[in-house]
Amino acid sequence: MSVRRRTVLGAGLAAVPVLSSGVAWAGGDGAPQATDPGAYISFTGGAFPLVGAPVVVSADDHPGVVRVAGDLRDDIERVTGVRPAVAIARRAVLVGTIGRSPLIDGLVAAGKLDVTGVRGRWETSLQTVVDHPLPGVDQAFVIAGSDPRGTIFGAYDVSYGIGVSPWHWWDDVLPVHRDEVWVLPGRHTQGTPAVKYRGFFINDENPALGTWAPAYFGPGKAPGYPGGFNADFYAKVFEVLLRLKGNYLWPAVWGRAFAEDDPENHRTASAYGVVMGTSHEAPMMRGIEEWNRHATGGTDPYGGTGEWSYLRNAEAIRAYWRAGIQRMVDEGFEGVVTLGMRGNGDTGLPDGDGIELMQEIIAAQRQIIEEVTGRPAAETPQVWTLYKEVQRYWDRGLRAPDDVTVVLTDDNWGNIRKHPSPAEPRGGGYGLYYHFDYVGAGRNYKWVDTANLRNVWDQLHQAHAYGNHGLWVANVGDLKGNELPTEFFLDYAWDPQRWSFDRLGEWERRYARQNFGAAAAGEVAELLAEYGRLQARRKPELLNRRITLAADGQVVYDDQQTPFSFGHRELERVTGEWRELGRRAARIGRRLPEAAQDAWFELVGYEVAATANLYALREAEFTNLRYAREGRAATNDLATAAEAGLAADLDLADRFNSRVAGGKWRGFQTQPHIDYGDVDRYGPNAPWQQPEKDNVALPDVLFPAVRRIEVPEAAGLGVSVDGDEPATALPPFSPYQTRPQQFVEVFNRGRTPFDYRVTASVPWLVVDHPRGRVTRQVRLEVRVDWSRAPAGRSSGELTVSGAGESVTVGCVAERPPSRRALRGFVEAGGYVAIDADHYDRAAGQWRRLAGIGRTGAGMTAWPVTGGWADSAASWPRLEYEVSLLSAGEVTVWTYLSPRNPTLPTGPGLHYALSFDDQAPQQVDITAGADDGLLNTVWARNTSDHVNRTSTRHTLASSGVHRLKFWSVDPTVVVQRLVLDTGGLTPTYLGPLESRRL
User: Fold this and answer.
1) Exposed, middle or buried: residue 515 (CB in 10 Å: 0-12, 13-18, 19+)?
2) Environment class of residue 415 by beta-carbon count within 10 Å: exposed (0-12), middle (13-18) or buried (19+)?
3) Which residue has the higher pLDDT, 100 or 19?
4) Dihedral of CA 188/514/502/607: which sign?
5) Cα 177 to Cα 941: distance, rounded to the nearest angstrom
6) Which of 419, 443, 765, 958 has its CA 20 to 30 A from that of 585?
């Protein structure tokens, strides 16, 4: 049916109050009960058969509603093979907005449709079957909305229920064919969203999206800027946003200007019913690129100097801002206006950070809004985003007018910086800007999804608990590649109460079922959860950076080292975990039907296989460099393996670009992720910026480069021991050790094989293969026969002989005198390692967050809003029994999630530790870190995905002690506790958990 009248989605909605409770509506007073998306759809029977029913909408409704009715017809046809008609019939689907659709309003007036609990709400829908709704119509399935977006969400909810994935176009997800589709009886709704504005930011879009989109949809329309994104591209963005029940978009900004790149962009947003915004650096509905394109050569179009400076070019900048608001009014699109001002290029304001200047800027912006709209400023939605340095204004006391939504942010790495204070409620409420993609300090992460949903949940739960419900927006990078966290972010924003921590597995199964079918949903969900946990250990882009602390406490980067240790077989173990995950993904993928293969590769297969390959590549690369230093004959084999890994990486990208979906995504998988840190190749920004020259991404090469050596003909004995080089002794043995078994590697420095022999100086040392022949190298595991080892500490030696040479390896065995004296976690090798969730006693309320840690669960005091008194007697506490073999000094390393001082109660974020009855030692885990300036201490914590702090304690005796961890402040998440009694060696993840008696 044609559209006879163009309308604006926001018309009449300004009076709808900002949601302040943060609680998704769940019925009452005759209202329908909220149900899960699509839960009223059945494939075996019900009250109304969808197949064959026309989808009817009034042309007088909002254009977005008329359009979504067409999408619903398309979706029904995708599932059933039968296309619905558009004309009324004896059974029909009626789609419309309360107060806008004559169809719907007629049913309400006739008493046929009960809209109690729906009418007047924000973005709320109703799905119900009505008998004899109209003359000549026996039955109708009615999809009604409280406002146009409520109707749109209601229609897309039906699409979801019948099996159409929100990602059907973006990831080539084909729905399961159904011959029958039924609507169940009852009045159904998905409730009212807890967060009023929910959306995402397309950002950091070069090279992937920036290469693919103009090639697929055609160039931008602005003369001289063919890389712009046009309305055809944004139509696909708007559709998936609405299918995910989002309503708000920050458009792409890397060299792109939404309004200029296609004059139809804003009109398309209006036609779809999407609220437009601009990013934190782009005030007054104008992308910063609009300024950059026209302010050149010391001039700008407004008679100014071309400077992005309010102090030096205020009149021109005000005119520029006025034009942005005027365009919003003239084109009639719905928008949320960004206030404030930052420097050009995501930097601090060049005019300084004086509060008086920012007050003047915000006052001038609001005056422009009033003058252009002819209404009080409070009637135009506005936000002030406290991103990076902007938060300092707030911390120093500057407040935006009460009607402005203050958007709080994370630190770019998924850790929120500030929560609302209960003492400062605002009429405009608070918002959240969160990241699943980032370019900047520490290092870019742009390649594949690296979000751990358990961590995301913790942060979003905190935001919800502290009353942040005004506007949530996530930086999703290219969007494609971050589907899972994007969908979860928007689902949680809609209904936080539905998705408690214990239901995350259910959410992952639902996501897997929607995209890959019910049969595979369980194992796909488990795979995705493990993928998120492993990725959260470290971003793939950082797999060639080791971060250490110098003796003076300074943070030191080495971009030619693995962050993982050769000791404890750590590098082998983490690579093995990824290798196994890759095998699991391949097995699942092989069992899926041919029709699901493209979607599988796009949504799961590529990211798992490519990351697993990258870990194998890095293991080969760094093992090669170690072997080269040792002169091993196997050195060049590892160089070949690393080069094969690079070739495999490029082949996986080529499959994505040219073989998936018939080449639909050609040019998309072009994001470099291996050559970071290569200063000689692409300059001083290499430690953090993607490989690029002149703002164009470079293809990856191996960095650091592998080495090849000249291997002599003659045999040469080499011996390497378990652990990081150089070492001449094995790590201590203990009957209670949990570390991987100690080993000696006998290797050849030449091409001629030789025979070796290992002899022990004491009878209790056992080598699994004490003699044999070496071509390249042989690994020999060494054990202790504890039935023959004396009590206490004993020493022995292994002598390795071969090729006319001998090497001696030292060995120490530590056998506690009596097991009866041991209890709890037992020291072995000079340390005790404890996973925080394995406590002996808890005081206060605690919540176990399974999978949030780098190696397992985390523990956090509950609730996250606190409520306990500021005294040790009131602090929630976890206690652990440990058995130590000697008295003296103990250093306890506490591994915590890298949180920021978010709380309104004071500076810092604190925990405390004590042994036995000693006084607790308080630690501020944020000491030295600056989440606004993004200094190296902060970057170390976020890059390592852990905050690792230490306390020192003196114990007067050996034996059993009670270690106590206290949560002084809420929101602290403790993952591990590692006690160093003198034998702890550096590892990235810490040793495996100690044995517990």
Assistant:
1) buried
2) buried
3) 100
4) negative
5) 48
6) 443
- The dihedral over CA atoms of 653, 658, 662, 663, expressed in degrees to the nearest 10, equals 100
% residues pLDDT > 70 (the chain): 97
Give residue 26's pLDDT: 41
Query: What does the alpha-carbon distance between residue 368 and residue 342 come to, in Å, rounded to a whole number?
Result: 18
Q: Is the pLDDT of residue 586 over 90?
A: yes
**Contact of 68 with 27, CB cutoff 8 Å:** no
Residue type at 737?
Q
Q: What distance in Å separates the CA atoms of residue 133 and residue 532, rounded to the nearest whole number?
A: 49
DSSP β-ladder status, 959-966 and 877-884: antiparallel
What tokens appear for 812 in the block? 């120490």
Peptide bond between residue 863 and the one before it cis (omega within 30 degrees of 0): yes
What angle, 0 to 180 degrees and rounded to 10, lies between the N-to-C axes of helices 231-243 and 264-272?
A: 20
Tally Cβ neighbours within 10 Å of residue 376: 11
Q: Which two tokens stand for residue 552?
A: 């003076």
> CB 370: neighbour CB atoms within 10 A?
16
Cis peptide before 207 (omega within 30 of 0): yes
d(CA 262, CA 371) in angstroms, rounded, equals 27
CA geometry: angle 580, 581, 587, nearest 5 deg = 90
Query: Please, is 223 exposed, middle or buried when counting C-beta atoms within 10 Å of its C-beta (0-12, 13-18, 19+)?
Result: exposed
Here the tokens at position 354 are 């004086």
Distance of CA 202 to the CA centre of its chain: 15
Chain centre distance of CA 102: 44
Give, for 323, the enclosing helix (H) or strand (E): helix 310-331
Tokens of 692: 């690029």
Residue (of 587, 677, 678, 573) closest to 615 by Cα position: 573
Taking the C-alpha atoms of residue 672 and residue 832, their distance in angstroms, rounded to an integer, is: 40
**CB-based contacts of 662, cutoff 8 Å, min separation 6:** none
d(CA 400, CA 95) in angstroms, rounded, equals 41
Judged by phi (left if over 0) then psi (alpha if -120 to 50, else beta), residue 959 lies in left
281 contacts 292 by C-beta, under 8 angstroms: no
Distance (Å, whole) CA 401 – CA 361? 13
Q: How far apart are CA 205 and CA 593, in angstroms?
A: 32
What confidence tier does 28 reach under pLDDT thresholds 50, 70, 90?
Answer: low
Amino acid found at 705: A
Give the whole-angstrom CA distance, residue 37 versus residue 606: 28
With contact defined as beta carbons under 8 Å apart, do 675 and 698 qualify? yes
State the amino acid at position 650 in one-letter form. Answer: L
Rounded CA-CA distance 589/609 in Å is: 11
- Helices 355-373 and 310-331: crossing angle in degrees, nearest 10, is 30
What is the DSSP secondary-structure string of 773-833? EESSEEEEEEEE-TTTSPSEEEEEEEEEEETTEEEEEEEEEEE-S-GGG--SEE-BTTEEE
Please state, in angstroms and as integers, the Cα–Cα distance from residue 555 to each residue in 563, 565, 619, 702, 808, following that order.
14, 18, 24, 25, 36
Three-state DSSP class for residue 144: strand
Residue 818 CB neighbour total at 10 angstroms: 7
Which residues make beta-bridge pairs with 79? none
pLDDT digits (tens, 9 = 90+) for 673-709: 999 999 999 999 999 999 999 999 999 999 999 999 9
- Would you say residue 9 has pLDDT above 80? no
**What's the CA gap between 168 and 325, in Å, rounded?**
35
Antiparallel, parallel or unpaired: β 55-57 and 48-49: unpaired
Alpha-carbon distances of 804 from 23, 115, 779, 907, rounded to whole Å: 77, 92, 20, 65
DSSP 329-385: HHHT--B-EE-S--BTTTB--TT---HHHHHHHHHHHHHHHHHHHSS-GGGS-EEEE
Task: Tell me the average pLDDT across 702-729.
Answer: 94
Farthest CA pair distance, the chain: 103
